[in-house]
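--- STAGE predict ---
source: upstream dedup step, 1 unique chain passed
mode: sequence only
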Amino acid sequence: MPIVILMPHSACNCRCVMCDIWKDNKNLKQLTENDIKDLLISLKKLGTQQVLMSGGEALLNPNFFRFCELLQQQNIRVSLLSTGLTLKKNADQLTKWVNDIIVSLDGDEAIHNAIRNIPDAFQKLKEGVQHIKSIDKNFKITARTVIHRLNFRQWPAIIESAKEMGVDQISFLPADVSSHAFNREILWTDQRQHEILISEDQLEDLKIIIEDIIEKYSSGRSFISESPEKLRKLHSYYAAFYGLNPFPYKKCNAPWISAVVEADGTVRPCFFHPAMGNIREDSLEHIINSDKSIRFRKELDINKDETCVKCVCYLHLAPGTKIN
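--- STAGE serialize ---
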């Protein structure tokens, strides 16, 4: 299991329109140092090479950097997925204990702040990125953008904002509106989904924007993570909601090479599938090798499973891949 995703803290410091995590901030859950120490026993046996700190906002856990220290002592790389609001405040510690950072970027300043529902979110993110780069210009910071109804027309401006901010690379994915992920105990209604989904009559505009981006930034392939083919899949993904084409094919082996450990210890094969156990009741090694978990993986067909077919966030590593 080369990759494990940890959620050190259940709360978030943003109030994003496409996510419900922040709505449960009052019911705080977080991993403890003992959780991490126990988890390390399994991670060493499983040959884990990288831990991605996700959330909520992982930096809200007061023991975050202690967790990083424990992982680094075992030669496990630490990546942080962050809103970016407190990067500047934590810059010295981040450059010491974290290997790379992935920040969420939703638009230019006005759009980003509106989607995040935080007045100075963009400026804080920008200052944080630039401050870390001033400490270590080679420290890798990438941006990830969810493209949806509220920001797809600003897509070129997002790319320019990312360049101005100073991130090393940017990637794009469609919005998840149909799963229980992101703290959706109750699935979104059709009306709520269409507040985020790109509408059918906007699809042609989306296609034009994608082709313009491919033409304008084709020479900047190293800055935009996705190939032209993958960028076009964002259009296919939204078109699939209206029966215009199948959901795009994806190559994913996340449930076979990774696991997610949530802030209360719950273990899932990925963000979107049901829980397999809890590290406060059993070891991660035993949970993922239980009869229930093995049966799940044997029976899972990502080309037919409804959750997998509509998935927006997939992972694929070839056997023996070394994570640098």
